[in-house]
Amino acid sequence: MIDYNFLPYKPPNLDIVCTSDHSCRIGKYSVDPETGIVNLYIGDRIDMWPGSALKIDPPAKLKEQELKLVGDGLIIDTRNLQEKLFIGLPTCDCIPAITLANEMVGIVHISTESLFRFQSARIGTPILRPPVLKTIFNDIDPEDSIWFFGPCIHAECYEFGADDASQFIAPQVRKYYPEVNPDNFILPSPKQGKVQLDFPGLTIAILESLGVSNGSIIIKSCECTVCSVGDDGAPKWHSYRRSGTNKHHNWLTVEISP
């Protein structure tokens, strides 16, 4: 059983925190059914899976302090899970996503970096490529997964220079996701020389191109992090684009029970 939330603050008592470094590294947590030892694999790059492994014996040691992982995603193999696990992922304007597949629970930081290597040469294979999904989910098909999106930046607040869009974004989308037409998600802007990127729409189209059905992508609390305000008129979510700082974050949290 899982219980998840999207919050504008970090909750206490997290067991594992997965913090993005735009490298597309993914961690995977599993429990050995015979020994009860926790194995936590951390890939150096997603196309070099698996990377190093951290063994935690007994699992109760995990509860002694918050464990911090650096990467863009964490997959929990819930088989043989012996106690409740509370995990979290910070974001500002990128998409915080939960994905479920068979007995796997994943939290993923989806950004332009992790989708199509917009700026970073450190990324091996983009995080939503089919080989990646099948590897981290034990060779299941993407069509068997369910995705939940939280608050992220929307098109009206996500502007790029028109040249950046035509020279970088569109070619990278066509390279990695040839079935997706980027022109459907690069929209005109009222500002001269600018365009807007429908980032949630593009991500949904990419998932659908990989075989995830539209009905399996659930938009929950997918408000714009930049312009959404509460009843008091104050911003509801933290936003790098709005504030110019990533000192504060929004949090995706998932509580997983055996």
Write the layout of secondary structure elements.
Blueprint: E1 2-7, E2 16-19, E3 26-31, E4 38-42, E5 52-56, E6 67-70, E7 73-77, E8 85-91, E9 95-101, E10 104-110, H1 112-116, H2 130-136, E11 145-149, E12 159-161, H3 162-176, E13 186-188, E14 194-197, H4 199-209, E15 217-219, H5 240-243, E16 250-256
CATH class membership: Alpha Beta
Number of domains: 1
Q: Going across the major beta sheet, what is the strand order?
A: 5-4-3-7-10-9-11-15
In total, how many beta strands? 16
Work out the radius of gyration: 18 Å
How many helix segments? 5
- What are the low-pLDDT stretches, counting only 5+ consecutive residues below 50? 45-53, 118-123
Mean pLDDT: 81
Q: What is the architecture at the second tier of CATH?
A: 4-Layer Sandwich
Shape: globular
Largest sheet: 8 strands, mixed
- % residues in beta strands: 25-35%
Topology pattern, helix = H, strand = E: EEEEEEEEEEHHEEHEEHEHE
Say what the CATH topology is: CNF1/YfiH-like putative cysteine hydrolases
Helical fraction = 10-25%
Q: What structural category characterises the helix and strand content?
A: alpha+beta
Distance N terminus to C terminus? 7 Å
Give the gist of this structure.
With 258 residues, the chain is an alpha+beta fold.
Task: Describe the protein.
- This protein is of the alpha+beta class and 258 residues long.
- It has a single domain, classed as CNF1/YfiH-like putative cysteine hydrolases (4-Layer Sandwich).
- The chain contains five helices and 16 strands.
- The strands form three sheets. It has an eight-stranded mixed β-sheet. A five-stranded mixed β-sheet has the order 1-16-8-2-6, with no helix packed on it. A three-stranded antiparallel β-sheet has the order 12-14-13.
- The termini are close together.
